[in-house]
Amino acid sequence: MTSEQNKTFDLSASFKAYDVRGIVGESITAEIVEAVGAAFVDALGLGGETVLVGGDMRPSSPEFTQAFASGAAQRGANVQLLDLISTDELYYACGALNAAGATFTASHNPAEYNGIKMSKAGAQPISSETGLKEVQALAEQYLNQGSIPAAETRGQISVRDVLKDYSEYLRKLVDLSGSRPLKIVVDAGNGMAGLTTPAVLGDKLLPALPFEIIPLYFELDGSFPNHPANPLEPENLRDLQAAVVKHGADIGLAFDGDADRCFVIDEKGEPVSPSAITGMVARREIARAQAAGEATPVIIHNLLTSKAVPELVAKDGGRAVRTRVGHSFIKAVMAEEGAVFGGEHSAHFYFRDFWNADTGMLAAMHVLAALGEQDGPLSELGRQYEPYVSSGEINSEIEDKAGAIERVRADFEGDDIEIDHMDGSTFSAKDGSWWFNLRPSNTEPFLRLNAEAKDQATMASVRDRVLGLVRA
């Protein structure tokens, strides 16, 4: 590597709390990535160890994968290039091979972005509190001194394909061979699900399942020519919703760019909320754990998930544990509690059998199994798990976020409510009829509102009252 003379590198713009993300050619370049690869090996003491490196379909990913591998090998790690992978494939590889790894992806961000998600051996997450800051500091040091010191023995670089092993592993966890025939529309959004769906659910690598898969945008294309690969935005689901109705399909699945999140559409073209999916999968995982002799299986849910989830978990003999929003919190609590499953309102789903990591594909397989083992449509099945009405997340651009929250608190003070501050401020009616949470964004001037109530009228009333105060 060669550093520009007198240029000081500061990577704080691209190093986030849980990963690295930036604009290609500006805050993330091959030179920076090479230094990060070397720093990753040094910060985690991986000299002489195996390091797994892959990437998504973004145009810059192959160059960055090679640069990271070069930096890691220079510091003595033996690199296995996994080539094109989804993020949950990386977690599988880090877990199954008990090796640290990195994948190049910017998930649902626009085409001009790329980034790095890193993991310790066993798919343990890395955050700013568990090694990412050390990686950043060492990378900056190498960049500013203009060279990466050579290890005594340079590591070897080889190639390894994990797609078939990953697919076989998932099929062992959820047996779909006995399902009734299902017609499934899958919107890969030109992202990595275009590679993993035919491998896991189709007959590309493994025996065929009783599914007819109708593909939408399976061509891997990091310029996202059809729509952004972010199914959290309702407009990005419209093509899938129309296709499900047009083809008379039983279910629609939408994945984000790196395929670690999955969203579900019923046969009428209506979204099934991530909270309902959490409840559906939780029920299956509780039953499976109990059948294996576990007395009270633990399910994790973040505080924005519907209260239907902890109610269902308790009814089924499990124990629900509420956490803050964010995968590092969920994964930490999953490990502490020995939880069998965890779900978030943002459609991240975590599994003990998947090294506590999140995988959209495994969640999708559980939903297909639940649908395929009974005769009713998904709209009826989903309704069992959505007894309440939710507002979804509503953002308000507010500079004085603390002042806005204080106005809400003062206005609701006389009501019969409880307030907790686990993550933002959650206001709950003591009679159980509604709750809402206000969370300030750490990175943007947004205050995020999530509200839920027993019926539409109550939810709308609470939502509009809060928004009136926040936006006053």
TrEMBL record:
For the Alpha-D-phosphohexomutase C-terminal domain, which residue ranges apply? 393-467
- CDD domains associated with the record: PMM_PGM
Q: Do the record's keywords include Magnesium?
A: yes
Q: Which UniProt keywords apply?
A: Isomerase, Magnesium, Metal-binding, Phosphoprotein
Which residues, by range, are in coiled-coil regions?
A: none
Q: Where is the Alpha-D-phosphohexomutase alpha/beta/alpha domain?
A: 14-140, 165-269, 282-387
Protein family per UniProt: Belongs to the phosphohexose mutase family.
Note the PANTHER family from the entry.
PHOSPHOMANNOMUTASE
Official protein name in the record: Phosphomannomutase/phosphoglucomutase
Q: Which organism is it from?
A: Arthrobacter cavernae
